[in-house]
């Protein structure tokens, strides 16, 4: 890649090409993911979304946003403090996501119902807490949908003691097509710049939501969808929709 390619237009060109690739190659996987989401909603389940680091951006894309499904819940390592009573200093540990037992504790704090679907998001798919969450969910009978980079996960060793990676555990895998290390534009002399996984991940999340909503409509059911709180009546209408899932979805300030 030339120096001239490390530019706004270079990133736009390369990322748009990969976005189109994802749109075409992921059709079957998106359909399978939408089946999981629609089945969960139809069974009065909640979509439990979990990720760490920058993957939390995609958790926010799925859980609790305008145009998104109401029965969605964001799981976060910060829940140890917000709902688990731990000292805020625990979050100062940069290796907390590698500590055994963290995912199990987060699962218990969420107290999911059996019909809930777990969406676990990780570009590498190997962080211990990510793998532990997927394993714990499966052990408790939940279906698991993964959003990850297959190129990255195949290029690195497993970190969890089980020797497994997120993609090994999930019922359905959405591949964000990000390269190993995530950055897209090669720099002269080595290294790269500009992450891709959030861009392609958002596309996959919204394609899945759209397809799931279409399945619900085809079955004669109205998808429970949030309206922007910044339009007249939106906030009040959302509160009414949330009543059905009282105590099962968290909507904190962010």
From TrEMBL:
Taxonomic classification: Bacteria, Bacillati, Actinomycetota, Actinomycetes, Kitasatosporales
MF annotations from Gene Ontology: isomerase activity
Alphabetized CDD domains for the sequence: SIS_RpiR
SIS domain segment(s): 37-223
Keywords, ordered alphabetically: Isomerase
Domain of life: Bacteria
Listed name of the protein: Sugar isomerase domain-containing protein
Presence of the UniProt keyword Isomerase in the record: yes
Pfam families in the cross-refs: SIS_2 (PF13580)
InterPro entries: RpiR-like_SIS (IPR035472), SIS_dom (IPR001347), SIS_dom_sf (IPR046348), SIS_GmhA/DiaA_subfam (IPR050099)
């Amino acid at each position: 890649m030339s120096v001239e390619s490390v530019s706004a237009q270079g990133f736009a060109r390369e990322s748009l090409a990969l976005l189109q690739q994802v749109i075409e190659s992921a059709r079957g996987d998106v359909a399978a993911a939408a089946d999981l989401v629609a089945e969960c909603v139809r069974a009065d389940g909640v979509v439990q979304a979990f990720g760490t680091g920058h993957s939390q951006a995609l958790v926010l894309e799925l859980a609790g946003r305008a145009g998104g499904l109401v029965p969605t819940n964001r799981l976060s390592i910060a829940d140890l403090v917000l709902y688990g009573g731990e000292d805020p200093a625990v979050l100062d540990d940069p290796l907390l996501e590698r500590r055994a037992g963290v995912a199990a504790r987060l699962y218990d704090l969420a107290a999911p119902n059996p019909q809930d679907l777990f969406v676990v998001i990780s570009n590498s798919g190997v962080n211990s807490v990510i793998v532990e969450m997927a394993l714990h969910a499966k052990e408790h009978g939940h279906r698991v949908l993964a959003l990850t980079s297959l190129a990255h996960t195949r290029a690195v060793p497993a970190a969890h003691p089980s020797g497994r990676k997120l993609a090994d555990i999930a019922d359905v895998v959405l591949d964000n097509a990000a390269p190993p290390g995530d950055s897209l534009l090669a720099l002269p002399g080595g290294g790269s710049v500009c992450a891709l996984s959030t861009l392609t991940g958002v596309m996959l999340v919204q394609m899945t939501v759209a397809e799931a909503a279409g399945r619900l409509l085809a079955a004669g059911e109205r998808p429970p969808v949030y309206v922007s709180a910044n339009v007249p009546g939106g906030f009040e209408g959302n509160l009414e929709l949330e009543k059905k899932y009282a105590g099962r979805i968290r909507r904190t300030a962010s």
